[in-house]
Task: structure prediction
Amino acid sequence: MTEMVFGTAPSRAGDPVLPRWWRTIDRWSLACVLVLFGIGLLLGLAASVPLAEKNGLEPFYYVTRQAFFGGVGLAAMVLVSMMAPDMVRRMGVLGFLVTFVALLMLPVLGTDYGKGATRWYSLGFASFQPSEFLKPFFVIICAWLMAAAQEINGPPGRLYSFLLAVTVVLLLAFQPDFGQASLVLFAWGVMYFVAGAPITLLTIIGGIVVAGGVAAYDASEHFARRIDGFLSSEIDPRTQIGYATDAIQSGGFFGVGVGEGTVKWSLPDAHTDFIIAVAAEEYGLILVLIIIALYAAITVRSMLRLMKERDPFIRLGGTGLACAFGVQALINMGVAVRLLPAKGMTLPFVSYGGSSLIASGIALGMLLALTRSRPQGRLRDFLGKRSH
Result:
């Protein structure tokens, strides 16, 4: 307990893998992830049973699958978190190449499951969404390129990362998947800013993004319909946003009671995109605040630990992963309370979804690997020595 409060001890050469991992890992963030997964299973018991009955399946069919895929995701998180930064970088580069090819082949081999966007591969027993796995790998490869640009006679890594970001964003927008595209662009922008990009350049890029949004509104009926629904002063009570809004309002501070909620019988995506509405209705504002605090704790603790890092790759990669994780949760909850247009984005470790759970496990494993304590001293001490 002392180490959890005052910080982990640095690793010593020759230590066994598991004891060294346990001493150097951010155990508070690890605990927060486990609590989030437990909350997800609890909410899944309430939210997914009506859908299982509607589809003629066993009552706890989706909960069982969530537990299985979540277990795989947590196992992946632990294994990846044991990797050294160099291994994380290699995994990120190879993973990006594989998922990028999968993203390219979606228009030919993918399916939309009747949702108007070709984002998945049907595997028969499950589905695979490449964009979920692409995000963490994209962050790692961009961090590697930007870090390489800071070396003497290094390559123009910032330019390469920008071209890569534009390519990925366009591929996602053509699915269309504007939610994942905006998240990828946000993660790249944060890393680019941390890498030392001038604010003027970021402002210009922001203007280009706005212009691209206007063009997408004119060209995509799917995108325009969601924006129009968001900007409308009235909410259609028969839409998912309408059901979610009513559920959140009726939940109040303490909720209507476990199993007493009704939104799960109306919302087709109650167990995925709108799981927070089920939490708000049955458990009230208290559980919602706990969920927000858990995401904030993981993001803030990761950023604080990254501030001590001297390695630019670790700082950039960890920052991109932490911000993408926190902002994805923010987007999901923002859509449910109508602060943002509908995005079709899951709540990490809480929503149902095999791709989301496993990809979130890989992403958090990379983040935990990059934020492990290392015997390197503090960044400010290193900068002070260089100034003398």
